[in-house]
Specification:
It contains 12 helices and 9 strands. By secondary structure, the protein is of the alpha+beta class. The protein has one domain: 3-Layer(aba) Sandwich (Peroxisomal Thiolase, Chain A, domain 1), CATH 3.40.47. The strands form 2 sheets. Strands 1, 2, 3, 4, 5, 8 and 9 form a 7-stranded mixed beta sheet that branches. Strand 6 (about 215-220) and strand 7 form a beta hairpin. The two termini are about 35 Å apart. This is Thiolase.
Length: about 350
């Protein structure tokens, strides 16, 4: 665990009154008035196992219309972040129309792998910030059941013979093992952090902390008798393993024994997931005009490139960049969440 702390120890930023500046409210602030998500369900086994990705996306659009408290015709643009669908822009446009989004509302898609949904937020925020639109909708969606990751297509010989380029084609399991080896992160460290994550998720679910962000989804599931799909309401994450302990995780076999040190397992790695989320953004001026609550302010986004073979340490590079942009220090931050930061913190006094 000490090695993990050392790896993150350089997450610092310059402090020059940035916190006070960011807390100021201005009419041109880009604010979030709606942030909702589906339950996160296990691929192939969970609540969305029998749904196509366009069906999942259509349901997300329906929930936005239901909870957004605005006329959807006011949305200036929609950006859908997604990775795996074969025809993502077709799915996004048709799902929006099927859900009742008016024809005059345009749709785009964006793919930055794991951070695609966050990049959708950033794209919409930037469009609002420069005055191209007043209101925008960002969505992240993935069905790893309907669209399993097939990996890259056959690469050219030039790519294969270029070390970093060829590294970028390798499986994430390989990169995970590289990080563990290069930074001396032990299996015990990994399982301890994973067990803590499960414990926190279990407690959060039991205490109802997720209830305000999850909106129930109407899922289509095959019935046990006829195999015909029936409507079922899914309202909770189904991948949280209650009672998980470090000792139990240490017994799980390595998922990638072919790559030393072979410490990544099905217990300490993220699950294969089906799910969706949506964020409605607009200027503070527009939110006040429409009488909508301000949940948070989007401030900045930082992205960083690094050696593909250790791509998992990307946040340790991008987070300091975001802090520096805002004139903040690590001590100013109340919450770090996720592996890519799109809003650094959301104190309620911003509203």
């Amino acid at each position: 665990m000490e090695r993990v702390k050392q790896l993150a120890s350089h997450l610092t930023g310059s402090h020059s009154g940035g916190l006070a500046i960011l807390k100021r409210n201005t009419p041109d602030d880009v604010v979030i008035t709606l942030a909702i998500r589906s339950p996160m369900c296990k691929a192939k086994k969970g609540g969305f196992r029998d749904m196509k990705s366009d069906e999942l996306l259509t349901e997300m659009f329906r929930r936005v219309i239901e909870h957004g408290n605005i006329d959807p015709a006011l949305i200036g643009d929609i950006c859908v972040g997604t990775v795996l669908p074969v025809g993502p822009t077709y799915e996004a446009r048709t799902a929006a129309l099927a859900a009742g989004i008016p024809e005059n509302v345009p749709v785009q898609t964006i793919n930055r792998f794991c951070s695609s949904g966050l990049m959708a937020v950033t794209t919409i925020s930037n469009q609002i910030r420069v005055g191209q639109i007043e209101i925008g909708l960002a969505i992240g969606i993935e069905s790893m059941t309907a669209n399993p990751d097939q990996g890259p297509s056959a690469a050219s010989e030039e790519i294969k013979t270029c070390g970093p380029a060829n590294d970028a084609l390798q499986p994430m399991g390989w990169t995970s093992e590289n990080v563990a080896r290069d930074f001396a992160i032990s299996r015990e460290d990994m399982d301890e952090i994973a067990a803590l994550s499960f414990l926190r998720a279990e407690n959060a679910q039991k205490q109802g902390y997720f209830d305000n962000e999850i909106v129930p989804f109407t899922a289509l599931q095959k019935g046990p008798a006829t195999g015909e799909r029936v409507k079922v309401v899914v309202d909770k994450d189904d991948g949280i393993r209650y009672g998980t302990t470090k000792e139990g995780l240490l017994k799980v076999r390595a998922a990638f024994p072919q790559w030393p040190p072979a410490q990544t397992t099905g217990g300490n790695a993220s699950q294969i997931t089906d799910g969706a989320a949506a964020v409605l953004l607009m200027t503070r001026r527009k939110a006040e005009e429409l009488g909508l609550p301000v949940l948070a302010k989007h401030v900045t986004t930082s992205v960083a490139g690094l050696a593909p073979r250790i791509m998992g340490i990307g946040p340790s590079i991008a987070i300091p960049m975001a802090l520096q942009q805002c004139g903040l220090a690590k001590a100013d931050i109340d919450l770090f969440e996720g592996c890519t930061i799109f809003h650094i913190f959301t104190p309620q006094d911003w509203s």
